[in-house]
Inverse folding.
């Protein structure tokens, strides 16, 4: 499982304060904790700062990569902010995200191509987020075909089926699961990625729903996720689902997590 | 989700003692706890008693149905024991289980037909439990076609894909998930049922694996399970997976479980 740590996001109050105050120590602590817990990549998002976003993203990339040799996921729909961040990024970044919306595609694609980035592609177009799996799958096909035509290879595309709250539609969970399975069957080699927390919006015990949904997504083929790797119960669920889906050879990672005390029922 | 409470099984030491001592109070307490926690049906298994099995099953059916108006799942491969139990059972029982093994089919089928029972049908034949989903699905098709030919309706058939430990084969979890999905697609109307605990045999933190696997099975179409309804974490996982799979209209059961304090992260 490819894990993108989601915590460095200025929509979180403490991160927002730290970015404004240029408090590198705090940011590095949050980055380090996520890497320690198993993140393969660190997402950076400074969308709330609006005009300050490009500077903030560049600063975040610089301080994090000065200390850790880890690739970052630059999380912005703003091409100017992406350019600032990518111009200082070392190694291959991921851009989060492109869509099939004309304007967004035209703005982001040149940036992705110029820096040879991996890219998160959301299953939506100018008509918004579709209701059904079939519509999402149709967008997925068109996204992959467009990105491949531009020279981006399948292994660098991370399709996000886009999770909507089940409190607003009983079928919205299943639509994501069916989309994931469809992608695995029809577009082999393409990665799938998901943010989970939308699914539980408006319901109690959100963490329970989010981690249960993660297991269900893994059963349907999900191979990457943007999540909080310091949520121990979520990670225990992830390790077990990964093993149960036959993705963890000889359950090695599961057993390693167990020996590190990460699976205990008290976490 | 159709829940069969698994706890009245003489392979559990206290149940064994209670059955031998004809301690009806203890048995009724275990039955009552399971019903209270949401079991739709109570499994009774006295297989360890060997020669005493028929008498024990009859006694269990009698005392449980004297107090609770609930149908029972008579869990035995022994036609004589099934006959004893079914001859005193009120309402429609479930028989657990038939297989495509010739001898077992010929022994159990007449009993199921005579009493008009629902039936658990295991996806195995005289060659044992198959490795792959395709082989299981092939047996599933033949089981349903045989049982339907005998006059048993689809809604009374509960196919069990048979779970094998992932510690003995990385693919054994996925084989079950693929079988469940195949049954849902190819044999609509037929129910699926599963015992979970085999999946985690030989690994640490078995309860974590079992409940994660339950969520993954529900994502793949499982609609019934034989489990311990007094395992609160397992049930919290079940309620959330059921809602996430779009099977819980307006999340009503999930919200009801929440109000009853059954979803709290401390359970």
């Amino acid at each position: 499982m490819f894990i993108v740590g989601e915590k460095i996001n200025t929509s979180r109050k403490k991160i927002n304060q730290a970015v404004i105050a240029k408090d590198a120590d705090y940011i590095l602590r949050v980055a380090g904790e996520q890497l320690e817990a198993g993140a393969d990549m660190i997402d950076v998002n400074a969308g709330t700062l609006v005009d300050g976003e490009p500077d903030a993203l560049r600063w975040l990339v610089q301080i994090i990569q000065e200390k850790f040799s880890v690739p970052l996921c630059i999380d912005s729909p703003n091409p100017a902010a992406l350019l600032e961040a990518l111009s200082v990024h070392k190694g291959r970044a991921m851009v989060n995200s492109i869509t099939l919306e004309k304007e967004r595609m035209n703005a982001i694609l040149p940036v992705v191509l110029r820096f040879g980035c991996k890219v998160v592609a959301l299953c939506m177009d100018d008509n918004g987020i579709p209701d059904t799996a079939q519509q999402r799958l149709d967008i997925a096909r068109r996204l992959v075909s467009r990105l491949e035509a531009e020279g981006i290879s399948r292994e660098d595309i991370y399709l996000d089926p886009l999770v909507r709250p089940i409190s607003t539609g009983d079928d919205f969970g299943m639509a994501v699961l069916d989309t994931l399975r469809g992608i695995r069957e029809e577009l082999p080699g393409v990665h799938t990625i998901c943010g989970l927390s939308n699914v539980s919006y408006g319901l109690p015990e959100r963490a329970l729903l989010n981690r249960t949904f993660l297991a269900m997504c893994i059963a349907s083929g999900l191979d990457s996720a943007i999540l909080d790797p310091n949520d121990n119960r979520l990670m225990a669920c992830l390790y077990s689902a990964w093993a149960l889906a036959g993705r963890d050879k000889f359950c090695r990672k599961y057993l390693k997590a167990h020996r590190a005390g990460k699976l205990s029922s008290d976490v």
